[in-house]
Amino acid sequence: MSETQELTFKDVASHNSKKDLYVVIHDKVYDATKFIDEHPGGEEVLLDVGGQDATEAFEDVGHSDEARTILDGLEKAALKRMPGDPAGYQESPKHFSSQPSSSSSGGGAGAGMGVMFYAILLVGAGLAYGAFQYLQANGGKEAGGKA
Hints:
Order of helices and strands: EHEEEHHHEHH
Radius of gyration: 29 Å
Oligomer: single chain
Largest sheet: 5 strands, mixed
Number of helices: 6
Shape: rod-shaped
Distance between the termini: 94 Å
Strand order of the largest sheet: 1-5-4-3-2
C-alpha cells in the first residue's frame, strides 16, 4: 500500500462479489478478489464475509504465518470507522495467559479425568452386573452356604 487510503464500512460493503471482494480484518481493508480462487478454504468462505468485518472468522480459524503474509500483500486501505459502524473485533480475554504451560495441559487433563471417571464407572457397573448374574445363576449358594 503506497498511500494511506481510508475506506468506510459503507465503501467496503459494496465490494462483496467474486469479481470484486473486499474484507476487513483488524481495521484494515483487504482486496481479496485475486485470491478468491486460491483460498484453501474455498471461495464460499470468503464470499460469506465479503464486504464485512471478517476479523473474527479469520482469527477463529487460526491462520498460519504464511496466510498472514499473503494477507499483507492484499492490503488495500485502512478502515475509517464512522458513528453507527459495527463494533470492532474484541479478542476474548485469556484468563490463562499468565500460565501458558498449565492451561494447555490443564484443559486436556480435565477432559481426560472426566473420560476416566466414566470409564471406571462403566467397568464398576459391569463388574457389579456380572456379580449379580453369577449369584442369580448359583442361587446364592456361595454367599450363605457355609454358615
